[in-house]
Design brief:
Blueprint (H helix, E strand, L loop, with lengths): L2 H38 L2 H13 L14 H17 L1 H12 L11 H32 L12 H18 L2 H10 L5 H6 L1 H15 L5 H30 L9
Length: 255
């Protein structure tokens, strides 16, 4: 095969991958949109839970909006945010369908395990952020200083902070899934992860410091400790799938 033919084949392969990625993203967005429409019907009830972490720090217990459309836009954001969470199994399924062609045939049977574990991990991250990280952050931020200044938090700013925190924590808890997929694709191995454990701890510590909005060490370790535990779990499962891959099986499909 000539160099020109090799180049044409690689370009065609890249184009096909990009087309497939676009298709999967669009399908994932459709699922999120449907979830958002459903959640919008319950947005008032959802807002009660969203206000709860900061409510005791606010005078009168309410958030402020400074423009006529602010509250409506905020409710739309809440619907999209909740739709993203509700549609977690769906967009994880789309992610799996994009990755699956690069896996062995016997590895593709783990699709349900991938979707289930990914959904559980993401929801666990959101729950962790809601019940532990957010209260700790607000206790520090809202009580910072001598107490002379009084908070008047706008609904827009609060929702941006709230949704960003929970989305980040949810995605951070997907760490084991990401590492296991990289292992199944052959990018990392159990030995590699073990040998580079110390560097990973540093990376996780830096990530925890960046992701937590407060500068105190307690908040950072609140995220670092579960992430490190999840990393250790990842090492185990990467080794598990390596042993499975050593068993007589089909060749990895070419893409």
């Amino acid at each position: 095969m000539s160099r020109q033919e090799d180049l044409a084949e690689s370009q065609q392969s890249l184009t096909e991958h990009l087309r497939e990625l676009r298709t999967r993203i669009i399908k994932a967005l459709y699922g999120i949109l449907i979830g958002a429409i459903i959640c919008y019907n319950y947005v008032e009830q959802i807002m009660l839970y969203i206000r709860a972490p900061i409510e005791r720090h606010l005078q009168g217990g309410g958030l402020v909006f400074t423009a006529p459309a602010d509250k409506f836009i905020a409710y739309l954001k809440v619907a999209v945010f909740c739709g993203f969470i509700v549609a977690t199994p769906w967009w994880l399924y789309q992610a799996w369908k994009f990755v699956a062609p690069g896996l062995y045939a016997k590895e593709k049977k783990y699709s349900l395990a991938f979707i289930f574990s990914g959904s559980v991990l993401y929801i666990a991250g959101v729950v962790f952020g809601y019940f532990l990280a957010l209260p700790a952050a607000f206790d520090f931020l809202m009580m910072f200083g001598d107490g002379t200044d009084k908070p008047m938090i706008t609904i827009d700013h609060y929702l941006s902070f709230f949704t960003t925190m929970l989305l980040v924590f949810g995605l951070a808890f997907e760490l084991p899934l990401i590492i296991v997929i990289l292992g199944m694709l052959g990018f990392v191995s159990q030995d590699f992860l073990r040998k580079n454990r110390r560097y990973m701890v540093v990376i996780l510590a830096i990530a925890s410091a960046i992701l937590t909005p407060t500068p105190d060490a307690i908040s950072m370790f609140t995220l670092l400790i579960p992430l490190y535990i999840l990393f250790e779990i990842s090492i185990f499962f990467v080794g598990f799938f390596e042993k499975k891959a050593e068993e007589p099986a089909d060749e990895r499909p070419r893409t």
